[in-house]
Design a protein that fits this description.
The chain is of the alpha+beta class. About 35% of the residues lie in helices and about 20% in strands. It is built from three helices and ten strands. The protein is rod-shaped, with a radius of gyration of 27 Å. The two termini are about 25 Å apart. The C terminus is likely disordered.
Length: about 200
């Protein structure tokens, strides 16, 4: 009796999408842990940096930062630190925004650490190791980066699965087995195990 196929086209697409998202998260985590090719240097805040500053800065501080500290760039890893002083504040309370982004080939996760010199540091979408403050893992998704990376990894997963499947079917055919289930064939046109067509002709009696 012929067995039903293991999955439809929709199931395969869902499987690939989930696998792509998992691979994307794993790659972003590895970039945070390894930080390959990490170098520092001064640079102007990016558009994304300024958007994050404007969305988090409290009242009494300027809408753009007064300055930046050296940023860190690496393979799938990026940090930026911006600061500003409160306008009209005699204590000149310092507001610092520390950004972390990770992901490859496009940055797909971000997080921020906020310090104002008065309150306890606030983490937004950022996990910081208590043992090592140098280990900061962003967990807030960047939608465009997540979609791009997940689609890329999903396509690679589908291509890899197809290649492995084709190689396995070819190996089974050369070994005289059913290319679908691996059952040993004896000149059968139809596999007696799964019902797949084998392309072999049954010898006449």
């Amino acid at each position: 009796m012929r067995r039903p196929k293991r999955g439809s086209f929709v199931v395969r697409i869902v499987w690939a999408a989930m696998l792509g998202m998992l691979i994307n998260a794993a790659v972003a985590l590895c970039c945070c842990l390894a930080k390959p090719g990490l170098t520092s240097g001064y640079g102007d805040p990016t558009v994304a940096d300024l958007r994050a500053w404007a969305g988090s800065v409290p009242a009494g501080f300027p809408s753009t930062p007064d300055g930046t500290t050296p940023n860190w760039y690496g393979f799938g890893y990026y940090t930026a630190q911006m600061f500003s002083n409160a306008t009209g504040n005699p204590n000149r309370s310092l507001y610092v925004l520390y950004l972390v982004r990770s992901g490859w080939p496009v940055l797909s996760f971000e997080g921020m650490l906020i310090q104002d010199g008065i309150h306890q540091p606030e983490h937004r979408g950022l996990i910081e190791s208590r043992a090592s403050r140098a280990l900061r893992i962003p967990v807030k998704p960047i939608l465009s980066g997540v979609i791009f990376n997940s689609v890329l990894y999903a396509c690679l997963a589908l291509v890899g699965r197809t290649l492995v499947r084709q190689l396995l079917r070819r190996r089974r055919t050369l070994a005289g087995q059913c290319r679908e289930c691996g059952h040993q064939l004896l000149n059968n046109e139809i596999c007696p195990e799964c019902g797949a067509m084998t392309g072999r002709l049954t010898k006449p009696a």
